[in-house]
Amino acid sequence: MGKLLAYYKRPNEAGTDEAGRGCLAGPVTAAAVILPPNFENGLINDSKQLSEKKRDELRPLLEKTAICFGISHVFENEIDKINILNASILGMHRSLDQLTKIPELILVDGNRFKPYQKIPHKCIIKGDSKFLSIAAASILAKTYRDAYMKQIHQEFPMYNWAKNKGYPTKEHRAAIRKYGLTKYHRKSFKQLPEQLNLEF
């Protein structure tokens, strides 16, 4: 994987990304972050390329160092109403709303976005492995979402969300077969390959 680039075109840029888009349960969580112009950290990378321990270590460093950042959960009911793509973009917009500095440019991980205010944006496929601001946003989104999934795991430990974080693992799907759906499951998602409808 290539070296992360600090900036795209302008120093005052916001990177934004989401976590949990492919999950069966829990929110999709988005983050937006503006890093200082001289920021460097060789450990920061796409959150999927980092261990959970390393992400958790980087989170407070990013929170302390960033010029500003925002985090937004878009929960299951809203995902079911507007679909996961729109929910992901909405989460990014809500995260951008929280920034205390207006960015000159928004860098978006992926290939889909909707204009935010009148700020120019650039969609970058695999942007979290190319640009520091997007990578930082991916780490914040992932760690905040994981923390939330560990919290609701206490309420429904049989699904083991503390480990699988709501993703469609064999363990998670086996628990759905046995226990059905919870209020945290996305009802618009195909929860099990062999079933169209599940009781909940």
TrEMBL record:
Its EC number is 3.1.26.4. A divalent metal cation binds at D17, E18, D109. Keywords: Cytoplasm, Endonuclease, Hydrolase, Manganese, Metal-binding, Nuclease. Its main location: cytoplasm. Gene3D superfamilies: Ribonuclease H-like superfamily/Ribonuclease H. It catalyses: Endonucleolytic cleavage to 5'-phosphomonoester. One of its GO terms (molecular function) is RNA-DNA hybrid ribonuclease activity. Belongs to the RNase HII family. NCBIfam families: PRK00015.1-3. This is Ribonuclease HII. It comes from Croceitalea rosinachiae.
